[in-house]
Amino acid sequence: MGVEPVSKMEETRYSQNSAALPWPGGTWGAREPAREQTIAGRVQRELTAAWKACGAYEWVALGYLGVSSALIAVFARNLAHPGRLVATQGLLSAAVLGLCWIYARSAERAARNGGSFASRFWHFWRHWYPHLFFLFCFEELAYLVHMVHPGWFDGKLIAADTWITGVNPVLWLERFANPVLNEYMQFAYITYFTYLLILGGILYYRRDWQGYWSVMTYSMAGYAMGYVIAAVFPIQSPWFQLAGAWHTELRGGPFTALIGFIEHYGRVRGAAFPSEHVAGAFAALWGAWAHRRRVFWVFLPLVVSMCISTVYGRYHYMVDIFGGIVTGTLGYWLGGKLMRQEKRLIGHGANELQADGEAGGREAAGDGNGRNAREIGGAVQTKQQRTSGIIPFPDAGGVFAQERRGDRSRGNNKRIEARVGQRQVELLDEFIAPLERFQVDRCRNLSSHFQAGADIFAVLRRAGRETSRLLVVVGGLGPGDLIAGIFRFFQ
What we know:
Elements: H1 8-17, H2 24-52, H3 56-74, H4 82-113, H5 117-140, H6 154-165, H7 169-172, H8 179-190, H9 192-205, H10 209-232, H11 238-241, H12 254-266, H13 276-291, H14 293-312, H15 318-367, H16 370-388, H17 397-410, H18 413-431, H19 456-463, H20 467-475, H21 480-487
């Protein structure tokens, strides 16, 4: 028998319908590298996004942690637990990056969907965590002061004080001690803890985000310089070095007792030069000069008194004060340069996003894909809000979500949306007028939006008469409202 020949047409049809079946082993073998690349790429993208969410303050803060960790690694032989210190700083760096990343994602969602309790929660902690960071870094110095040198250099500063004044200022001031002066000096000393809180609180309340982060960056830059100097040039302070050289203890009233409590449980032996109290106070003072001039004149006499009290109270040498003034002023100068650089970068990025948004909008308009246009527009809005710090006020979507969903299922979108919008306007006009500051630019006069004596508690009492109204009001409150209400009295 012979084989029947295949026609050209049939041969072409067979070749078109034929398919190559890959060997399963090769397919599964290629999946694992692809999966690893996907995970690695995602981690890299998220880390890049977290870094982009950081600002000038984080540049300085994370830079200090990097320098500190490098010094710990180099001088590990002089430290008891260098591995724990590096691990702790690594965790702290991860926490800072994580907080910035979470806040950026939360702000993007708020730009698209309106504000929520979560967005205001992360907004609050994104702005107020620097105070906890300062506290951690200062207390950590107790473990780092002998990182480079095992001894103390107090004798050099005592000699410098004596060369400048002809006496030992710490012991010489003892002749003026009396309960009234002691109490005032301890009061002046404790005001250090309030400068950055008051100035930051006012700027936060006024929604002056550029000024707020400028002040935080001034402080971080000044503190970081002082932390590094304290780690390589250990000074334990007159309180320890000259203990027993004075004749009487400084006795006074409640402020003296409060300082005694703080010093007993929070004192760090070492880290006296330069004075971080003075550095932080001068960074805040220069920040007030730049952003709230009236606050500067209120702070000035208190800061001068505080500088004197650090020597009078036997906490610092006089040279420590000069060192703190220098580092605080340098922090103001360096922080200002970094903030200007950040502003230029943000402006450049916002311009790029705006161009992308316009191009995306034109493309979406051409192909009918409105969702992409909204996403790009939301990204542009979020980028601009990071510059101004404004989080959109919620549109009470939680209260009316069920009504909207039912509306869509019944096909009555326009009628129900109009009714929902009318109800929102009525409720907002009547009960949430004091909360309109969420939508106000920092240059507006916010006081015009508050009735005399109005506060968040009064708003809640009025809204509590009806459950739906109370839900709308509570949806507009965030953790920062309490602080905003307190600092309203400073204006």
